[in-house]
Design a protein that fits this description.
This protein has 252 residues and is of the alpha/beta class. It has ten helices and eight strands. The protein has a single domain, classed as Rossmann fold, CATH 3.40.50. The protein has an eight-stranded mixed sheet with strand order 3-4-2-5-1-6-7-8, with helices on both faces. Helix 3 packs across helix 5.
Length: 252
């Protein structure tokens, strides 16, 4: 299963990615979790040790130059658009409690082609993970679909847009849907987050008429408490995983 999770900043994308990654690991399925958000806090959310010390792949300049044949930071336009990346997951991803993690770093020009060796390297790696690998894959995207190009997007099983009760979150969902259609993502689904009352759920349903909903996650004060105490939320409030199990059941 290949999943990409996106939405407006702050709606809970990383939170949902962490839930799904944890549930895949519980099922003893090998799972790759990719932090493709510039804020890069998936490692912290999943409880990886020393998350601030993780080097994003895009900053591994020597490796990128070796694989692409291009010199980073120069005007030389010649580099490999399809560098060797099939060994990268086994060599450079970190593993913790059954979850394999990589922080990608920022890529520009989603769907528009590569403009530098770094882009070529990361896009080739993402294409490899989505198209060629058999493990479960969950992408924590920035507020859009910048990392997904044509050809890669077509192989994503579902693009999950996380929304919260709010106009800006709703508007972002519509924009993402339009962009997703342009590059051929076959399935777009909605998860409502931070639901405090029935009115919140109704607001989202009324304003996203025609979208496919796969779940609603209630607001839980204990998630904030877990963050303040530096405890992974699934350890501090494991009941939240029950909502994730319902979402995963629909995806499967």
């Amino acid at each position: 299963m290949k999943l990409a999770v996106t939405g407006k900043g702050g709606v809970g994308k990383t939170f949902l990615v962490a839930i799904l990654a944890k549930l895949f690991a519980e099922k003893e399925r090998e799972v790759f979790a990719i932090d493709a958000d510039p804020d890069a806090n998936l490692a912290l959310t999943l409880g990886f040790p020393n998350p601030s010390e993780i080097t994003p792949l895009i900053k591994m300049k020597k490796l990128i130059e070796e694989r692409t044949g291009g010199k980073i930071g120069t005007s030389n336009p010649y580099f490999k658009l399809n560098p060797k990346v099939d060994d990268i997951p086994d060599k450079y991803f970190l593993s913790h409690q059954g979850i394999n993690l990589a922080v990608m770093g920022l890529v520009r020009g989603g769907g528009a082609g590569c403009t530098c060796p770094e882009n070529a390297f990361l896009k080739a790696l993402l294409r490899h993970l989505v198209v060629e690998r058999m493990e479960a894959l969950i992408l924590d995207m920035e507020a859009g679909i910048e990392h997904l190009g044509r050809g890669t997007a077509e192989s994503v099983d579902s693009l999950i847009v996380v929304v919260e009760p709010g106009r800006s979150s709703i508007e972002t969902a519509y924009k993402i849907r339009d962009l997703a259609k342009e590059i051929g993502i076959p399935k777009i689904e909605i998860v409502g987050n931070k639901i405090r009352e029935n009115g919140d759920k109704k607001f989202i349903l009324d304003n996203l008429n025609g979208f496919n909903f796969i779940g609603f996650i209630p607001y839980n004060e204990k998630i904030i408490e877990a963050d303040l105490k530096n405890i992974p939320f699934f350890e501090y409030c494991p009941e939240i995983l029950e909502e994730g199990r319902k979402i995963l059941a629909k995806l499967e």
